Amino acid sequence: MFNTSDGEVTLSSGEKTVRFPTVTGTEGDVGIDISKLRADHKRITLDYGFANTAACRSSVTFVNGDTGELRYRGYRIEDLAAQASFPEVAFLLMNGELPTKAELEEYESELSGHTLLNEEMKRMFDAFPRGAHPMGILSAATAAMSTFYERYHNPRDAESVKESTIRLMAKLPTVAAFAYKKSIGQPYMYPRNDLDYSSNFLQMMFGLPVEPYEIDPVVARALDVLLILHADHEQNCSTSTVRLVGSSEANLFASVAGGMNALWGPLHGGANSAVIAMLSEIDEDGGDVDKYVARAKDKEDPFRLMGFGHRVYKNFDPRAKILKEFASDVLERLGVNDPLLEIALKLEEHALTDDYFIERKLYPNVDFYSGMIFRSLGFPVRMFTVLFAIGRLPGWMAHWKEMIEDPNTRIGRPRQVYAGHTERDYVATGDR
Ligand code: SDX
Fold first, then answer.
1. pLDDT greater than 90 at residue 1
2. What percent of the chain has pLDDT over 70?
3. 301 has catalytic annotation
4. Ligand 1 pocket test: which of 295, 362, 393, 399 has the largest number of ligand atoms within 8 Å of its C-beta?
5. What span, in angstroms and rounded, lies between the C-alpha atoms of 209 and 72?
6. In this structure, are residues 67 and 315 in contact, taking their beta carbons and an 8 Å threshold?
7. What 3-state class would DSSP assign to 76?
8. Rounded distance from Cα 297 to ligand 1 centre (Å)
9. Which stretch, 98-107, 312-321, 328-337, 338-347, has highest mean pLDDT?
10. Of 196, 230, 367, 399, which residue is the catalytic one?
11. What's residue 6's pLDDT?
12. Half-sphere exposure of 304 (CA within 13 A, CB side)
């Protein structure tokens, strides 16, 4: 029996009744606090993928998967994408409030002052093979950055944490652009402090030292919106990784590098690249979307519709809604006619009328349209997850800070239900 009343739940089984306190969030979500379960009742819970388990209380981001709502520090994603800049959203996520004009100017000036990499770090890029995946370079360079800033490692020192967040925000685009230039054998482009965050990244990515690079404001604004939409998403796989690594009091650079590696997976941040590969396969195969919808439904076929489904959203991912309209607008304004957009719209239409997807509440997620826009802006597919990481960085750092500052934080150490051999004696080699 499972009864709830204000502040507690009781579990009754036969003669035994057990009471647990509950915690209620500001949006009415209720968590059952089982922190005494093992000590008082010698029981643990089992929850694959932590689908039903909150690891913390958090004030950074609210997601309502049933209604398709996403808010950073209480502000709607639709409003932030339409009106804010990425540095402004980064400030909001990490500090909890939107910056005043003066605060934003100071923050942007701080970021501009740290966009250069230590010249010794440049040699690191030469250690990678020409075809190295940029995510491998990005996470390695992020961990390597920690060796240049050991004076800022102390997670308990607020000034050190601030200095670390500034360096990561300022230098990640430079690292990403250097990784790209290395992969195509072109000279590195140094940052330009006269440009805004997204424009500076574009000139480092696509500029050449032999000619001026002209920033297209449509492209710069599109990139800014994409970074805003990727900036945070509560306790997703990579953010939970950053929190877990940081719970051992590892420094921020090491924690973020861990999150990057989690993001790389095709079920998470690697999905945006996988969506383009999937749409290209469908396009090359004659555009028969029904065939691929059928494959996605076939349990014998490992094929999944990449960019569809979400652990939390059982309604439209609000970011996918924004990106769907944005994709058509950006491609039109850039005069890009991408056949994959037509395939994507057809695939979405067919999937959303199919019982398999309706029953499982599988809708397009943030990755379904983002890749097409990244591609229209000139980014190669292998850079898409890197772009996701640059966007997600302020979210990772906001959660890491919240975890470090939370007096309830303990080092993350889940339990298990042991399913292996019971005790047995050693058998000498000759007797096996
Ligand atoms: C991101 O967590 C976050 O917030 C992540 C993210 C963020 O901002 O950080 O939003 C970013 O990672 C978005 C997700 C990107 N990944 C993909 O697009 C990959 C394709 N989608 C999936 O593999 C899947 O939907 C997940 C990984 C996103 C969610 O996995 P769950 O919650 O573990 O769901 P599941 O795998 O248990 O699927 C439930 C059912 C299964 O069928 P049944 O066993 O019930 O018969 O739905 C089916 C699955 O087979 N299913 C799919 C499907 N996704 C789920 N079937 C076909 N195609 C799909 N894409």
1. no
2. 99
3. no
4. 362
5. 38
6. yes
7. strand
8. 13
9. 98-107
10. 367
11. 66
12. 13
| 227-282: pLDDT as tens digits | 999 999 999 999 999 999 999 999 999 999 999 999 999 999 999 999 999 999 99
Rounded-to-integer distance, Cα 366 and Cα 319, Å: 5
- Residue 398: strand pairing partners: none
Q: Whose CA is nearest to atom 48 of ligand 1?
A: 360
Q: Check: CB of residue 219 under 8 Å from CB of residue 202.
A: yes
What angle, rounded to 10 degrees, do the helices at 158-183 and 252-263 form? Answer: 40
Catalytic residue among 310, 317, 338, 399: 310
Instruction: Quote the pTM value.
Output: 0.95
Chain centroid to Cα 186, Å, comes to 29
Instruction: Give the torsion through C-alpha atoms of 71, 75, 77, 80, to 10 deg.
Output: -150
Distance, in Å, from the CA atom of 354 to the CA atom of 357, rounded to the nearest integer, reads: 6
Name every protein residue with a CB atom under 6 angstroms from any ligand 1 atom: 49, 233, 236-237, 267-268, 271, 296, 304-312, 360, 362, 365-367
Rounded CA gap, 347 and 313, in Å? 19
* CB proximity list for 195: less than 8 A, separation 6 or greater: 203, 215
CA of residue 428 to ligand 1 center, whole Å: 47
Does the pLDDT of residue 193 top 70, yes or no?
yes
- The whole-chain average pLDDT of the chain stands at 95
310 has catalytic annotation = yes
